[in-house]
Amino acid sequence: MNAPADSATEDSKQVSNQRPSKAASQQISNPSKKIVGITIAYTAFFLITLWAAYNNHLPLRWLSQFPNYDKVGHVVLYGIPTYLGHRVLRLKHVSFLAQRLPLFPALFTLFTLTEELLQGFSPYRTLDMGDMLCSLGGILMGYWIAQRAGSRTSINRKAPY
Fold this sequence. Notes:
This protein is mainly α. It has helices at residues 2-18, 22-29, 33-54, 60-63, 69-88, 103-118, 129-151, and strands at residues 93-96, 99-102.
């Protein structure tokens, strides 16, 4: 009669070994205040940069000293918020048309495509396929780094008990 109880105990040990520790669960379920604070600050910087670009207030004389500043800027400018947003939303993925899509990067991609297309209507901006590709490359890079950083947290490791 002890065999079923032992079997059940073994099964529960196997299941408990697959669960993340309480600290790891809290780490992924509650983004750190530091990440949230950086995200808020970067969002303000990003919006000010967009405003400056649409109102011809970018420091182009200074920026033009750097080779390919525009393309590098798009990769960095869009990669950082993708990383931060994906981390703040705890690497959340959603199902869409039988595909699992990362929520923040997918929404930010839609925003980016819309914003890049709207540049064609601005007197100070130009619609440029190279800029769009660099922005999308930044989004992919930010997503990849966030996923990698998320997989390195203890949430994906077995609990030590």
